[in-house]
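[recover] target loaded
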């Protein structure tokens, strides 16, 4: 993972490349715009090319911080960059004295569910019909996406 750079960004610093990656993970610009101002945003670059995004947002429960978005560009997937971003999220959460790291993903997001559990997350609960509020129908792994699975990791 040489020549990697993780940079903290403000909302005003985000460009089209950043939004393209963010929208791959969360295809609702309205939802992104709602949580980005209260979030800590990181861009992962390799050789000056943005290849990943990580967005962390404190939860209502003060001991928890949520990974709102984690995204790696298609050309760099399954090469350990997602795991690297998870490690950075955990490091940030510990540094800021959070007790739990939380992440939500689609019930049809099989690869992500595997990766998060491999990283130590445990399933916590399901938000039924969460993805029905999106303007467009979401299909993942040839299945219509309805529910969000929430996972937590004790730090």
């Amino acid at each position: 993972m040489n020549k990697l750079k993780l940079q903290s960004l403000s909302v005003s610093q985000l460009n089209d490349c950043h939004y393209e990656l963010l929208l791959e993970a969360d295809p609702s610009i309205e939802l992104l715009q709602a949580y980005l101002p209260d979030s800590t945003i990181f861009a992962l670059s390799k050789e000056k090319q943005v290849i990943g995004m990580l967005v962390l947002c404190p939860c209502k429960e003060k001991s928890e911080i949520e990974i709102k978005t984690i995204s790696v560009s298609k050309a760099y997937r399954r090469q350990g960059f997602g795991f690297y971003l998870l490690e950075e999220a955990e490091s940030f959460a510990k540094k800021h004295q959070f007790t739990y790291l939380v992440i939500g993903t689609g019930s049809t997001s099989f690869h992500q569910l595997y990766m998060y559990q491999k990283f130590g997350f445990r399933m916590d609960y399901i938000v039924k019909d969460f993805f029905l509020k999106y303007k467009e129908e979401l299909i993942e792994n040839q299945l219509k996406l309805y529910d969000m699975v929430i996972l937590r990791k004790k730090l």
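[recover] notes: The longest strand covers residues 49-58.
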